[in-house]
Amino acid sequence: MLLKQSKKETQLKRIKKNNSNLGNPMEINNLAINLKEIEDDYPENPLEFFKGKKLCLFKACLEKYFPGVRFGMEDLLEELGFEVITCENQSCCSGTFFQRNLITRAQFAAINERNLNEINQKADILLVPCNGCYNSLLRGRDFLKDPLVRKKTQDILSGLRAKAKEEKYPGQYEIMDNSNLKIVHDLDFLYLIKDDVVNTLKYNLKGLKVAIHYGCHYLNLDRDKDVSTFLKDKTKLDDLVRDFGGVPVDYQERESCCGWGASQIVLHPEDALKLTYKKLKSAETVNACFILMPCPTCLYTLSKPEFRDKMTKMFGDKLEIATLHLNELIAILRGCEEEQCITLRRKSPRFDLIYSLITQE
After folding, report:
1. What are the E-state strand segments in the chain?
2. Residue 209 CB: number of other CB atoms within 10 A?
3. Does 157 fall in a domain?
């Protein structure tokens, strides 16, 4: 046992020595924006912090099912006077592949480093609309604190450089040690500038009851590793609903999973859909008008017609409760034309119902 431990220690020392030109692994910055600093430095108007900065919207894979997620944020930012860009060279965050044990920590970190390097060339602030994507970007950086993972990650990036034969810009295939890029979740950003958001709204929620779903990856954010923050109640969505004129309603399955569970929806679909059913049924039981969430993956799971049909067959109960992403709700409240909103995704009762209730005179 001692011999094995000694060999491992020797290996780690060698890796640390070889990694000396890569910087101190323990000093890796996860790039998460410091919300408290912004609140302290700009108490009157946090939006001022972002003025003059280049904002980029991260492309979450499941946005293709719900284009209103991107439209809602892009439309708002343009109204607030920002130029918004998208990084065409960005790929999937690879979180689903990692959670399903299809890639290693180093491969996971390398994919995210490549994405961040590309985005760093174009933007100062990266806004992320998906819990899984946001957590993946932070977690990939965190893995680099391990010397062995860092070495393997750089080897993967160096392999990409060898295949490409040349760099488009200096450091394209290097781990980012020095970066001005900061990452923020859409929900955190919208809450930070909530007064400005409210001032752009044409409609309000008219006292509608809203069930809140934060999602596992937001409730257990990698950035919230200190106990006090980790255990602190998450209430930002609740507060925004109140500011928008709605009533957040408590329900038994408020903090339960949507049912996606990474590999679970694939390996154990019936068990996963039991969780989805319990979640939807619980919100419907307290007469919530719809479930509001900050994640397109959760939205996909809770609203997918095929999943709803399967649950109807499984439980003999057809659930009708609607579901919305926060960015979609803001688009409706801001008064986007019905065709703009509806044609952003396939015609759906989940969207029609909420649009009609909110915009009726």
Report:
1. 55-57, 84-85, 125-128, 182-185, 209-212, 247-249, 290-293, 322-325
2. 17
3. yes
Q: Are residues 115 and 238 in the same domain?
A: no
How far apart are the C-alpha atoms of 359 and 346, rounded to whole Å? Answer: 20
Torsion sign, CA atoms 75, 78, 82, 84: positive
Does the residue 198 lie in any domain? no
pLDDT in tens, 305-357: 999 999 999 999 999 999 999 999 999 999 887 666 655 544 566 677 788 88
Query: What would the pLDDT profile of 194-215 be if each residue is shown by its tens digit?
Result: 999 999 999 999 999 999 999 9
Indicate if 333 and 208 belong to the same structural domain. yes
* CATH code (residue 171): 1.20.1050
Running DSSP on this structure, what letter comes out for residue 49?
G
How far is the C-alpha of 127 from the C-alpha of 114, rounded, in Å? 17
Q: Of 322, 344, 259, 358, whose CA–CA distance to 69 is shortest?
A: 344
- Burial code (b: 16+ CB inside 10 Å, e: under 16) for 234-244 equals bebbbebbebb
Q: What is the pLDDT of residue 23?
A: 45
**What is the pTM for the complete model shown?**
0.88
Instruction: Please report whether residue 192 resides in a domain.
Output: no
Question: What range does the domain containing 172 cover?
Answer: 2-185
Q: Are 206 and 358 in contact (CB under 8 A)?
A: yes
Q: Using CA atoms, how far apart are residues 8 and 295, in angstroms rounded to an integer?
A: 40
Number of domain units in the chain: 2
Query: Over 60: is that where the pLDDT of 91 sits?
Result: yes
